[in-house]
Request: fold
Amino acid sequence: MKRFALTVATIVCIAGCATPPDKIAGVPNAGPCTQADKERLATLTNQQNKAANGDALGVFLIGVPVASMSGGDHETEIAVLKGRCGPPKT
Reply:
């Protein structure tokens, strides 16, 4: 029974981790892509990379996705901006 509870807890923690920005699909929307949108997308992509790495480390060390729990996950806004502007140029 303890093994089952541990397995379920592990799955829940991993599912709550921030998604890497390259795995976030764009959501089509009708807005025009401005330079400010491109800059915001680049900034959020950077932050999302850090959040995904922080979550992976947090789950490994203490079993909790710290970055996602503290508001570091920007998946929704990245999806909207990617739908408007496409993936950021690196």
In short: DSSP finds four helices and no strands in the chain. The radius of gyration is 16 Å. Helices lie at 2-15, 35-62, 66-69, 75-85. The mean pLDDT is 79.
